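Chapter review: from sequence to fold.
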Amino acid sequence: MTSSEPGELFVIRTAGNLVAAYAPGGDGIAASIEYAVAVLGVSRVAVCGHSGCGAMTAIAERHDLGAMPTIAQWLRHADAAAARVGAGAADPVSTLVRANVVAQLSNLATHPSVARALADGALVTEGWVFDIGTGTVTVVDGADSATTPAA
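The token string follows.
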């Protein structure tokens, strides 16, 4: 998907490709973001959603997550995306996947190391949606519109 060599990627995987907005206090995702940007000097960050995402399906279809309170709480980081999609989308899961990538890019930008690197021009962020069925990656811009397939 990225044509990269071993050691060229620093990957942080989360359910729903969610990135919590920055908050004081430590958590593994925030620490990993800070390490990648401030220590390793990562210059390009992609938030990548994918077709058929189970987390986005649970939100779009309003699954009962009462028996999974930790998952339910984690998925709250997609509330902004869910609010943007609303109830009338023709393909609510796909629409939510795209909106969520845009929302998570906004959350990512709240992290101090990311904000500094963006302001200094040392970091570029972009949103991707990977279509599992076709193997294609589409770049999604901040306005939640598809641009060109990713190279």
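Two observations follow directly from the output. Residues 46 and 83 are 23 Å apart (CA to CA). The longest strand covers residues 124-131.
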